[in-house]
């Protein structure tokens, strides 16, 4: 485990990212984007897992402008309320700019090959979609991204491969929104979407209320195949 510090692109200060390094370097890099609970143990474990698969994995603190160092769990109502409050205050456009700065810093890391992608979960899934439309990341993966139906107008800006994991019973993404998303990307040569039938939001979060081991394994294997193909 290491830590990477980035300067904000607007000069507002600096923020940090948890970084997990693989056994062998140089290696391709992944920007891992958090759920609404901050850079907590779940996100650190995900980074560690990707490092075990041969990637430099960094999870930036995207809530740093609101409250640095957030580490909530999904186990209590109070933490859920705090997480939703943070998400409500989060400036998505500014967050994407911070993530683009993080991507640049990650690409400049001494242990990277220069190839770098992104992967995000929940709120991070939305940000992964936006990294696909607004950044030069080499490949991007969104797990149950929220609000993607409102961003479909940006699909024409996708220039690198984008993979979407969608939960058919996602309590935060209505069926109509899912249908709009899948229809919009159906003929896009750079976008692939998989729908996981019977699964709710956060089906890949180990220990979560809606964790589905089979669906999580399928999504994770698809993600690894995708990154191997596009990041080397």
Question: How would you describe this protein?
Answer:
By secondary structure, this protein is α/β, with parallel strands linked by helices. The chain has a single domain, classed as Alpha/Beta hydrolase fold, catalytic domain (Rossmann fold). 36% of the residues lie in helices and 22% in strands. An eight-stranded mixed sheet has the order 1-2-4-3-5-6-7-8, sandwiched between helices. Helix 3 crosses helix 4.
Brief write-up:
With 232 residues, the protein is an alpha/beta fold.
Secondary structure elements and pairings:
Blueprint: E1 2-7, E2 14-20, E3 27-33, H1 41-52, E4 56-60, H2 77-89, H3 92-107, E5 112-121, H4 123-134, E6 140-143, E7 162-167, H5 175-185, E8 191-196, H6 213-231
Parallel strand pairs: 3-4, 3-5, 5-6, 6-7, 7-8
Antiparallel strand pairs: 1-2, 2-4
Helix pairs in contact: 3-4
Q: Report the major sheet.
A: 8 strands, mixed
**What gross morphology would you assign?**
globular
Could you tell me how far the N terminus lies from the C terminus, measured between alpha carbons in angstroms? Answer: 23 Å
Number of E strands: 8
Q: CATH superfamily name?
A: Alpha/Beta hydrolase fold, catalytic domain
CATH architecture: 3-Layer(aba) Sandwich
Give start-end ranges of low-pLDDT stretches. Answer: none
Output the CATH topology. Answer: Rossmann fold
Average the pLDDT over all residues and give the rounded result. Answer: 97
Number of helices: 6
Helix content: 25-40%
- Radius of gyration, in angstroms, nearest whole number: 16 Å
How much of the sequence lies in strands comes to 15-25%
- How do the strands of the widest beta sheet line up side by side? 1-2-4-3-5-6-7-8
CATH C-level class is Alpha Beta
């Amino acid at each position: 485990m290491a830590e990477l510090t980035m300067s904000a692109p607007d000069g507002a200060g600096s923020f940090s990212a948890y970084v997990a390094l693989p056994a062998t370097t140089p290696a391709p890099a992944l920007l891992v984007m958090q759920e609404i609970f901050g850079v907590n143990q779940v996100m650190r474990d995900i980074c560690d897992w990707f490092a075990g698969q041969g990637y430099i994995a960094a999870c930036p603190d995207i809530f740093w402008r609101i409250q640095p160092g957030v580490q909530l769990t999904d186990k209590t109502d109070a933490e859920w309320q705090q997480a939703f409050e943070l998400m409500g205050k989060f400036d998505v456009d500014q967050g994407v700019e911070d993530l683009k700065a993080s991507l640049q810093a990650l690409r400049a890391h001494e242990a990277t090959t220069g190839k770098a992608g992104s992967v995000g979960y929940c709120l991070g899934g939305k940000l992964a979609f936006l990294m696909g439309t607004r950044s030069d990341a080499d490949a991007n993966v969104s797990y149950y991204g929220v609000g993607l139906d409102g961003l479909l107008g940006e699909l024409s800006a996708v220039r690198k491969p984008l993979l979407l994991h969608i939960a058919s019973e996602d309590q935060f993404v209505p069926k109509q929104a899912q249908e709009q998303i899948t229809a919009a990307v159906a003929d896009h040569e750079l976008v692939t979407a998989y729908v996981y039938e019977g699964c709710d939001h956060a089906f890949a979060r180990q220990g979560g209320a809606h964790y589905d081991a089979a669906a999580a394994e399928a999504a994770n294997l698809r993600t690894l195949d995708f990154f191997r193909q596009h990041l080397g």
